[in-house]
Structures are given as C-alpha cells and as structure tokens.
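for the recovery benchmark. tokens below, seq after
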C-alpha cells in the first residue's frame, strides 16, 4: 500500500479542487489547462478535412516571431493544404481571453474548422454543462446520441466532477458542438466552430475568427510556455554508456535459466491445446520468450560483429529476436525484379541467424514488411515503386502481387544457410512467421486509390453477388441506397468497417473472408509446398473489428502491436518536428497493451511482436514493469520490444537516443530488466481466472451481427485478471470462468452485453461475489484503480502510483515525496518522480536473497535536445551525446527475513561494472540503501547489493 494517510489524501483533493487552474500557453497556440499534476483540458485548434480526416495545429516554420502577445502555428491537412493559426492571448488576474484566427493558405474541403477543448472522461462524469442557460448532465455511459449539444452558443459553463467549473464566454454566438468521444477514446470534446458536409471548399485567405474568454470561479493563472534545450547542470547529469555486459555481473541475465542453447535443441516450437507454446520434445511444458526487434541495416554486419552482438543479447537475457525491415538490403532489385536475394547481404543475415541460434536465441520474421516492389512487376509498363501500403493491400486481390509475395518467400525460405546447414523453412530456430506486417485491411481500406481501389471494388462486388440476389436485396438488408449494382462492379467500397450498421457489418465480414482465404492459401504454400515448420500468423495491427476473429481462427497463434508515446509527425512522416503526449501512463490507468489483450483468442498462443514506451517520453521507465506484469498476468507466450536497433551505426559505438532503439537508450534498456524478471523469469504469477468474450459466426454476421472493435470499455480488467476472446461453434464452449456472449447468452454464460459501458462495474461486482477479489482488493474502474487478483500489481491513477509486490521483484513508480510499501521492499522517493525496483539476482526471494539488483529510473534525454515547450511534448531537435540523466534521490529499504550480518552496495555502470561504493546500512532486519542519480563517475541508475547472513 502507499504510505500516505487517507485524511491527507482527502485534504489534498479538497485543496486541489479549490486551487486556481493554470493555463499553459504553448508557442503554437495550444493550451493545457492544468491543476497540480492533473491536465483538466487541452485547447487545440484543428480541423477535419473532407472525409473526416483530422489534423491539429503544429509549430510554425520558425519560432523567431513568437512572443507572449502573439502565438502562431500551422495545421497541415492530410491532403497537403496548410491552415495558418494565430492566437492573441490576453490574460487578466483570473481569466484569459483567447482570440484565434485560422486561415487556409489554399482552398480546402472541410467537415469542421474549430478550436477544440478536450476533457478526460473522469473530469466531467458526475458534472454537467450549461449552454446559454440550458443545463444537462454528462452521461455516465455512452449513449446512442453522441452529440450532446449542437447549437449557436454564446456562453458555456462546464461544472466538473470535482465541483469546480470552467466557463467559456464567446465574443459572439458561434456554433458549439459537445461530443461524447467514448466511441473512439475516453474523452469529451467541446468543438467551437462551424461544421460542414465536406462538399464545399473553404476559400484560400479567408480567416475564421474565434474569440472567447476562459474563466473559473477558482481563478485561472496564465503561464506562457517557451522552448527548452537540454543541457548538463545541477538537474541533468551526463552518463557514460557501455554497450556490452560484463560476464558474471549483476546485469548478466544469461544465467536465469530461460536460455537453453542451441535454439531448436528440443525440437520445433509447437502450440498446446490450452493456448500456450511448447517444444515438440517436451509438449507438456509451456515455454515463454522475450526479445527485441532488429531493423534495416542492423542485420547487416560482419561475422565477428554478429558473434559479439549475439553474445551481448545472451548476457542481456533475451531468448528471441525479430528480423524486421530486413528486405531492402536483402534483395538485388536487378532486372526489374525485387524478389532475388543478394548473395553478400544474405551471407551476413545467415551468419547472424546462426549466431543467435548457437546461443539459444529463437528468430521470428515477417514475409512482407517494406520490400520495395517495382510497379512494373505488378502492372506491365508502370514506372517507379509500388507504395508499401498499397502492396500490402494488393496481395489478397491481385494475383500478380500474390505471386510476387510467393516468389520472395520461396527464395528466402528454401535457400540453405551455410552456417546452420538447414533451410529457413526446416530450421527449428525459426519459430514464428507473420505473413504481412501490420496488414490489417481496415488500416488502409479507406484511403486506397486507382488500380488498388479497382481491384478491391471488384472483390467487394463479387462478394456481394455471392451473398445477395441483386442490388434491391442489398438495399432491403442495409436499409439504405446501395449506390451501385454488383453485377456491374459499381457498388463503392465503404470507408471503414466499424460503423454500427448492416453495410459496415457486411464489409467487416467481407474483409475477414478475404483475409481467411488469403491466409489459407499462404499457409498451404508455406507448409505443403515449402515444408515450413514455423508457426504462422497475420493481422498484427491496428484495425480490429470483431469479425476479424473469424479469420484468426485459422492462425497458429495471434499477434498484435502497441505503443505508448509513439511519435506523431507534424510536418512529414519520420521527420522532425514530432509530438507525443508525454504524460504519466500510471496517471492514465496504465492503458498500454490493455486493448491488445482482447485481440487474443484464448485457445491460441498470444504474442506482442512490437511494443514500446517510446522516447523521448519522460515516463518510459515504467513501461518495463507494466508490460512485464501484463504479459505475466495474462500468461502471454512471446513479447518483442521494438526495437534494439535500426542501424549498424549504433550497434558497437554509443549513439544518442531516439524514439525506439534500446541500444541507444540506456534508460529503456534498464527498464527491460523488469520485464525479463517479471515475465520471462516468472516472478509475477499468472491470473487464476479468466473472463472471456464469446462469439459464434452467427453472432458476428448478418442482420443481427455485432459491430465495433474487439476491445471493450472495461479493458482495464486486463490488469486485474486474464481476459480474451473466443470464437465458438454450436457445440463448443468458451475457455473462461466468466463468459459473456456477443449475442444471446447460452446456458452458464453471464447475461451481460460485453460492450456496454457499465459491464466493467458489473464484472468487478461478480468477481468479488465469486471470491476472485479479496476484500482488500482495491480495484475501482471508475477511479482508475486497478489491482491484480494476485494483488502483486496495483495501478493507482488518482495518486499516480504503481506498486509492484512479488517475492523476487518489488518496488514501483510514484511522484517525489511519496513512499511505496511493497512487501519486502519500501521505496521512499525524495527528489524527482521515479520508477524504482529491487530484483533478487539469485534464486531466493528478496527477503532472504544474498544478491540484489536495484534500478532507479528518472528521465534520460540527449544533450542539446530541443523541445517546443516545458512539458517536452514537441521535439524540435534530437540532440547528441552524452546522455543526460535527471537528478533524483531516493532511499530503498529491504526488510529481511533474518537480521543480516553485513551488507555491501555499489553503483553500477551500464555494463554491470562497479563504479563506486554506496553507504548501505543495517538496522535490525532492515537494510537501507541511499540512491542518487548523481555519482562520483557521473550519472548512475543501477546498484548491486550483496547481503551476508
């Protein structure tokens, strides 16, 4: 539990609600309305281009003209148009006047041009709004009408859940829309500005002026934000990065028993009847894997470097890797073909494969990621390359594209690796294969054009002809105009597959049928023609309508992806500036990965082949604990962090940190050790019970079929108990202790709608009734407090605190000034919010361990990194070495089972080498270790403690 009296918490809450709001005005014209650590609302100029393609304000081309009196940015439309944004903010003692002007540089078709106020759901539920004197409550549950208010409005009062208020007084009556956004995320939005049908264009040079005064009975303090450049100083300490791990050190995880070389020693990896992985020679023993991705040139290094790299990964504790984005260097692209392998780079890749195999590290790969395919390979006479996303969409509906995929796959899988003596198809070290990376058809179906769209429209019309007599029958079923004739291939493609209507349900079924047929054909090709033994999957991100599970039934395992703080690019993809939320995931209830838990089919192994808590997010250090706990609690089969490296340039020489690469981010590399201990070593117990959402094919298709995405509103229960989906037949049952059905419940199933807003509350009540949750379990979904049924993990969003309490790994995350009690470990954070945990390095629990590893993570950034604002949401320049670690202090107490005779502690380099002693003390049964990220040798984040009994 958190050592903080309840009376103090209540007093703090009361004080916070009475405190004035702070309006932080960014250079771009964005606003964050905060109180204490809480963001109450974000004010953002934005638009929806025709087709409801959204965009928000970013930075201007130059910050030179930005002053407190004038803030400026620009909105880059998805179609390429630029809308200038100017803000004149006028603060007074207790309010803030905001005068916006939004001006398109060129004519642009719009559905909406606006200034939006976004509120977290928890801020408004329990409160109400008053629009020009008309009052209404914010609904506790999502209803059928998401437009709560839409009218010309002069004054809007928002009475928040905590009793405070925000008031918006417009200079003149203006269209105001209040929308319940819970169909897409946990927020309400107030959109100030006109709405359009998208058919007309807003003229170039015509400004939209929106002016309003923001006030509150609590008062509003205005603060003008400014750019920030990271530099060494009292708060930021330079770190010396060592890439390799010293054998036998406290950071050498190769001895934890999860690696048994060589890979394939116990036969091929197989699936079990209860949805786990095992080796063919030991089918009754479930196995887990944890590893990293390699991308682009990181695969292509010398033989000597491959051995060095594989040895490093062994010491880091990984037992699997993913070869990703490897195709561009692997193919020759000679003679107008993109399918022939380059002997030189193939030799490098084969040797790397063999080096990993030798050390017991298993491999996975995708058979299409980003290979540059000539357009002429698909359409005779065409020049240039096929867009990567277009090729993914072409494979199921264009025979030439499918044959191209087959040819590359055949060349890769059937060549003989001279360093293993086996083909990739027959090698047991290749455990898993995905057909097309992130190829879920719903990702791109709304944006395909030209010949790609023509191929899909033909397939869609053929499907309609097979399922309906004629256009009249379709119109009767859909209850709307078909806008075409299937026999003439003129029925247009819907833009998405998640709307709640019969057309969208049919489209989801169509996409699932296309996927199922494509996968069946691919599986036959790989297994029957090529003799591939690896397990096969597909559809690993991002659009997941319920009907997609109809296709996943045929997979060997199910895979998915998730990210926290993934960069959003404001001008050009993969070019600065970029933006990320950079807010505490703990304060948000640890949402990362929760939705993925429902992509899982409970009778199949489940993997995450990409995840990251990305840089430069300052809270990324907690990601290792959260993901390790979720993977362990859910009993997933494999997790791969994205990524170890994207380049051979930083594999052997330290480089500045980026968005993803662990090799250049020593903070995230340190966070990995929590996942390795909790998940791979098994320090955290799996949940004892399972909640299943069941559906048959009849539940998902036709007139009464369900619509929407697989993840329910109560996905936070993925932090509490095991969850997942199950596709059942008339005679089969879902493998769950609590089962709800999409459709009419069967005998023994709960009569609950799995996708109703209040189902989570009812499930928690049922779990308590059945004794799954003890009286001491603190789970409260409404307050975003999530405690696992094992009580080894607690996420307390209101206090921004995570508590981890297992016998061999314990600690947590909490803001400065707080203490966390976690069984044998107490963590007192003095200065700077921190993620801190203790892991036993030997086989004993912490309370009797003779060797402990302590990790203390605050924040890490590059020297010279530039951000547009103090909250460090907008990255302008990446910076360079050395890495800088945020100064932080804490004390760790270890409560031992018996009084220790003595203790020695050292700070560690990132290699595990001792770099200085630490004055640990013993008082009775308690060891106290002071932590400080400022050490004699520079920054330090890791400590080894040796206890004598």
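predicted aa per position
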């Amino acid at each position: 539990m958190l050592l903080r009296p309840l009376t103090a918490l209540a007093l703090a809450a009361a004080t916070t609600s009475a405190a004035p709001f702070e309006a932080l005005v960014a250079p771009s014209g964005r606003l964050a309305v905060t109180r204490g650590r809480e963001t109450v609302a974000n004010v953002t100029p934005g638009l929806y281009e025709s087709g409801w393609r959204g965009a928000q304000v970013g930075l201007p081309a130059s910050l030179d003209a930005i002053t407190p009196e004038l803030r400026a940015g620009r909105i880059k439309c998805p179609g390429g148009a630029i809308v200038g944004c100017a803000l004149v903010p006028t603060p007074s003692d207790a309010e803030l006047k905001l005068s916006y002007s939004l001006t398109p540089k060129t004519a642009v078709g719009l559905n909406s041009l606006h200034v939006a106020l976004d509120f977290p759901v928890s801020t408004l539920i329990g409160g109400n709004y008053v629009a020009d004197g008309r009052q209404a409550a914010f609904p506790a549950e999502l209803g059928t009408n998401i437009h709560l208010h839409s009218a010309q409005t002069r004054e809007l009062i928002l009475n928040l859940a905590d009793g405070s208020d925000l008031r918006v007084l417009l200079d003149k009556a203006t269209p105001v829309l209040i929308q319940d956004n819970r169909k897409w995320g946990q927020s309400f939005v107030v959109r100030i500005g006109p709405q359009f049908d998208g058919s007309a264009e807003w003229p170039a040079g015509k400004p939209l002026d929106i002016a309003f005064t923001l006030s509150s009975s609590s008062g509003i303090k205005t603060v003008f934000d400014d750019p920030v450049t990271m530099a060494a100083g009292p708060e930021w300490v330079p770190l010396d990065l060592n890439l390799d791990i010293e054998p036998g050190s406290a950071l050498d995880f190769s001895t934890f028993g999860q690696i048994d070389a060589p890979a394939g020693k116990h036969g091929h990896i197989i699936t079990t009847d209860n949805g786990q992985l095992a080796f063919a020679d030991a089918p009754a023993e479930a196995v887990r894997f944890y590893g990293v991705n390699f991308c682009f040139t990181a695969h292509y290094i010398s033989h000597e470097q491959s051995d060095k790299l594989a040895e490093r990964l062994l010491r880091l504790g990984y037992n699997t890797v993913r070869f990703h984005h490897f195709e561009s260097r692997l193919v020759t692209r000679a003679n107008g073909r993109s399918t022939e392998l380059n002997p030189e780079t193939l030799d490098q890749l084969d040797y790397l494969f063999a080096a990993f195999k030798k050390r017991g590290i298993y491999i996975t790969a995708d058979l299409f990621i980003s290979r540059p395919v000539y357009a002429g390979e698909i359409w005779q006479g065409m020049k240039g390359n096929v867009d990567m996303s277009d090729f993914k969409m072409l494979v199921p509906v264009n025979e030439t594209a499918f044959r191209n995929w087959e040819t590359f796959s055949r060349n890769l899988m059937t060549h003989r690796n001279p360093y293993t003596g086996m083909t990739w198809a027959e090698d047991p070290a290749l455990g898993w294969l995905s057909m097309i990376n992130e190829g879920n058809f719903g990702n791109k179906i709304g944006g395909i054009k030209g010949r790609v769209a023509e191929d899909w429209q033909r397939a869609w019309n053929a499907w309609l002809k097979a399922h309906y007599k004629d256009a009249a029958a379709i119109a009767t079923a859909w209850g709307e105009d078909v806008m075409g004739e299937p026999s003439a291939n003129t029925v247009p493609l819907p833009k998405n597959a998640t709307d709640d209507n019969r057309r969208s349900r049919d489209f989801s079924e169509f996409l699932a049928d296309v996927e199922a047929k494509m996968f069946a054909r691919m599986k036959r090709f790989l297994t029957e023609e090529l003799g591939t033994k690896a397990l096969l999957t597909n559809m690993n991100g991002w659009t997941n309508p319920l009907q997609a599970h109809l296709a996943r039934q045929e997979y060997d395992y199910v895979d998915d992806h998730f990210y926290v703080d993934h960069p959003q690019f404001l001008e050009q993809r993969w070019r600065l500036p970029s933006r990320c939320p950079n807010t505490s995931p703990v304060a948000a209830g640890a949402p990362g990965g929760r939705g993925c838990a429902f992509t899982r089919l409970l009778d199949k192994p489940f993997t995450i082949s990409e995840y990251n808590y990305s840089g430069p997010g300052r809270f990324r250090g907690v990601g290792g604990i959260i993901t390790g706990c979720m993977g362990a609690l859910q009993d997933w089969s494999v997790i791969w962090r994205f990524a170890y490296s994207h380049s051979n340039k930083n594999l052997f020489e330290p480089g500045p940190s980026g968005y993803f690469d662990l090799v250049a981010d020593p903070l995230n590399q340190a966070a990995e050790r929590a996942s390795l201990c909790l998940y791979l070593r098994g320090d955290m117990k799996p949940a004892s019970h399972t909640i299943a959402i069941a559906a048959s094919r009849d539940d998902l298709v036709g007139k009464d079929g369900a619509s929407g995405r697989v993840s329910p509103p109560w996905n936070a229960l993925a932090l509490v108990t095991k969850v997942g989906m199950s596709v059942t037949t008339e005679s089969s049952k879902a493998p769950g202790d609590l089962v709800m059905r999409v459709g009419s419940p069967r005998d023994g199933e709960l009569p609950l709608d799995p996708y109703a807003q209040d189902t989570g509350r009812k499930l928690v009540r049922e779990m308590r009734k059945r004794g799954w949750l003890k009286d001491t379990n603190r789970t409260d979904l409404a307050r975003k407090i999530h405690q696992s049924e094992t009580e080894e993990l607690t996420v307390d969003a209101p206090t921004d605190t995570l508590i981890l309490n297992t016998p061999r790994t314990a600690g947590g995350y909490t803001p400065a000034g707080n203490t966390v009690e976690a069984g044998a470990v107490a963590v007192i954070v003095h200065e700077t919010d921190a993620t801190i945990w203790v892991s036993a390095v030997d086989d004993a629990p912490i309370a009797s361990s003779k060797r402990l590893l302590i990790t203390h993570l605050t924040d890490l950034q590059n020297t010279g990194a530039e951000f547009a604002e103090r909250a460090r949401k907008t990255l302008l320049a990446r910076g360079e070495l050395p890495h800088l670690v945020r100064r932080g202090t804490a004390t760790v107490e270890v409560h031992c089972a018996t009084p220790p005779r003595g203790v020695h502690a050292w700070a560690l380099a990132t290699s595990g080498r001792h770099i200085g002693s630490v004055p640990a003390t013993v008082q009775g049964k308690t060891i106290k270790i002071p932590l400080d990220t400022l050490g004699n040798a520079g920054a330090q984040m890791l400590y080894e403690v040796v206890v004598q009994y």
